[in-house]
């Protein structure tokens, strides 16, 4: 079995793929996207939609490209007259009972039924009879089932059966009465169930949360990373008019495959919160950045810092915090909210992790102290620096023990009654940076949104602060901040934005080994 | 859940029925393969297959309730709602229609007190439906009452047929 490569021709292009590859996947490797609905590379092959029919020379019938494996010397025609006519027929049948309610359908603009019909379907319908009508059904969780739009590809059924291992969906009835049904008394409240909305190629399964919020073509999309837990699922942040309206998973075979959990998906509203810190303040008055930074430096002069870091801060921010702590001879503490770990059983190494913070790995790597009592040991000798931690469960009295309080944050922690200096920073969708997930994978997130007011990226503010303490940290870009980190921290050695790309890279050595 | 299940669900597969199912399973390579006959056993005992029964069958055969429901709803001969003691199926395919099957249907509806096709009579005794070819075209119109065939039925024989049903 030394050479199990199969050579074939698809649309005139020579293709070499491993034996056992489907024609559909082989075609992808040479840039030919064969239309399909029921096929999804993360799910078992069903072969029910017939949309991927292609002509294979010397084969008497058209072949479904998803369920036909490649053969040596095959000549495949995707766009031959025969194949096109067959697919046109498939589309006409799929549209018989489809309501064509695109103007009010959330999927419109990102709908494969629209795309393929536009690409190779009929311009009109020959169907004159009344269409079937069925009411919508609330499937529970975040999922609404609009039966009339369903093309019965069964991706949702297979996801729940074979990936989620929560087999609650089925195809009920048969023929033109068939629809997606649920098991008696079941609903889609499982931790990963809302992925069926992404998997649905049409507008049959839609998000209740996103319902009628925006049209797909109005959205600005940016690659990012979910900060809900230490898994670090790759996501796309989708915004309308500078407001985040939803998260969608972004495929990354090393981290989240095609999926993200419902908890992460729902965790976007805080990014739009209106009660943000927008202006630097010193002694309760709004001031220029220079004044605020000078006031911070003056407070820290000759004092020990006690730094409380949010465990979801970027690697760059954490690294700078480590340097500030080194300079001022203080400790850094961080708390991590924990929750129930919920794995997606059918996907390798994917779960909502117990640590509901994005970057506890870097905090640990940089030697910060993980504790639920983040103010432990705080005294009047200390200058307390809070870096975007909400100080959950901490009383105002505990904070007041500090000699001075510096808040570097997106929003004011309720436990802080009075801060000497306030430095407003951008949140995760308003700045660029990198995060390290629990397997030591370093991943970039990009800026989607404008930071409010005078708020600046966290690494920019912390670098400025370091500079005002007399250190050299001229980080004018996120790339420069990361390069400085990679140079200083052995775990990140050799990494840069180019090697990270948008799917990340795993830190070599001890950390990755210990946690794998 | 359906309104007709106030009482707690009584399992079908206990005692003799359970033994019968165990015996049945020996005839199939997998438990899943015994699903259709297992559902027939439920329908013989209860005359219809409730969602609770689907869940019970699923548990007996190591399947999921969703899968069982998909199968039950696929086949029209499994009843997902209660039907009358006498389930009357009148063939109305072409040859029978030529022989007056539509009048037979009307007569059954009138004499059973069923208001319309598929709706059980108020006394719970009868449900009448039209079916496609019963395969007895030479004896039009055939009528199937539960498992029994009655051939050469005409509208005027209907009261007599009903009188003969217990």
Characterization of the model:
The complex is a heterodimer of chains A (516) and B (166). Chain A has 516 residues and is α+β, with helices and mostly antiparallel strands. Chain A has 14 helices and 26 strands. Chain A has an eight-stranded mixed sheet. In chain A, a hairpin with a 2-residue loop joins strand 1 and strand 2. In chain A, helix 2 (81-94) packs across helix 3. The two termini of chain A are 31 Å apart. The relative contact order of chain A is 0.09. With 166 residues, chain B is an alpha+beta fold. A four-stranded mixed sheet of chain B has the order 2-1-3-4, covered by helices on one side. Helix content of chain B is 40%, strand content 11%. Chain B has helices spanning 15-25, 35-46, 51-60, 65-74, 94-98, 101-112, 158-164; strands spanning 86-91, 126-131, 143-145, 148-150. The mean pLDDT of chain B is 93. The longest helix of chain B is centred in the first third of the chain and has 12 residues, at 35-46. Chain B is built from seven helices and four strands. At the A-B interface, strand 8 of A face helix 3 and helix 4 of B.
- Taken as a percent bin, the fraction of beta residues of chain A is 15-25%
* Terminal CA distance of chain B: 31 Å
Task: Figure out the total of helices of chain B.
Answer: 7
Low-confidence stretches of chain B: none
- Please state how the strands of the largest beta sheet of chain B are arranged side by side: 2-1-3-4
Please identify the structural class of chain B as seen in this structure: alpha+beta
Major sheet details of chain B:
4 strands, mixed
Tell me the helix content of chain B. 40-55%
Q: Tell me the strand percentage band of chain B.
A: 5-15%
Envelope shape of chain A: elongated
Low-pLDDT residue spans of chain A? 512-516
